[in-house]
Amino acid sequence: MRVTAGRVGMALGALAAAAGIVWLLMPKPIPVETVAVTKERFVASVDEDGKTRIRQHYVVAAPLAGRLTRVRLKAGDKVAANEVVAAILPPPAPLLDPRTRREAEERLGTAEAALERAKAVVERARAQADHTKAELDRTRTLAGSGASTVQALERAELAQRVADRDMRAAEFQNHAAEHELAQAMALLGRYKDGMDAPAEPWNVTAPVSGVVLRVLQESEAAVQSGMPLLEIGDPRDLEIVTDVLSTEAVEIRPGAEVAIEHWGGPGALSGQVRRVEPAAFTKVSTLGVEEQRVNVLIDVLSPPQQWTGLGDGYQVDTRITVFTHNDIEIIPAGALFRRGDSWSVYVAVDGHAQPRTIELVRRSRGFAAVRKGLTQGERVIVYPSDQISPGVRVSVK
Fold first, then answer.
1. Fewest Cβ atoms nearer than 10 Å: which of 122, 174, 220, 370?
2. Would you say 377 and 37 are in contact if contact means Cβ atoms under 8 Å apart?
């Protein structure tokens, strides 16, 4: 009996040793990470950063050349329509060098002498007209009594008309001499005390009511016609401009829903695509790659009270919806891999990895929508390594 018991013990020990060796030689389960398949609404979107922009910018420019007075307005000041925002004074007269000034003074003397000569001509013409008028009166009296001929009367009337025309010509010449004198005096007016009258400013008004966005010319300076002075806009009339790849822009339609995130306030703002511009442009990415991109214009639908802190040129993140599907299985995109021409996943079933061929609908933002091949609640292996093969043992982390 003792021999039999010893043999049994030895056999059991050998079996235990063999089991231990087998257990040591068996491959250990591969630790994996799994995610349950969910069934819910799937949304595919185009995510890009954008920039706010006031829809209507009004650039107030100088309507004429002159000297701009200092602009008192600052960025952020409110202005009303037709309110004076700047004033332009006439440009000063050019500086005269000594020789030019001397010539101007001599012209002034010449103009004064010409005026005196014109006055003398006027007096002479007036005296001549008075004389011819008296001669005409005497000739008419004599002709009425028959003491003078008709020819003498006609000559007197002609002399009277000629004298009147000469007097009018002399008066016009005197008037022109007065203007020439005034012109010569105006040229020297800045060098004579009390001759310069206060310059009348030209007031520049705001075209619309709004807020001053930028003051482009603040200090007093000489300006030319058309030079921009300041920008005015309504900060409540905001839109968002975001540029997307041209390959993504073909899916975006006017009216598409937009979520505006990371704008600086709590939650996300709602928006809507208003327009997708028809022309693309080339833009170099941060990696140095040339890309064809398209501007998408987005209207903000949230009430202005919710985003009062936003202004012109602020950065935001936009999520433009391009595809939706209700009640469909959703898995992480990291669980997908290609097997042949089909998409597949590994499903963890009873501690083993089982491959499953699926019919993929679409991927977006790290998730994938699956039409066939999976059911809700199954757990798929995400980011499967090359150690995962059909039937291999796995342990869930």
1. 220
2. yes
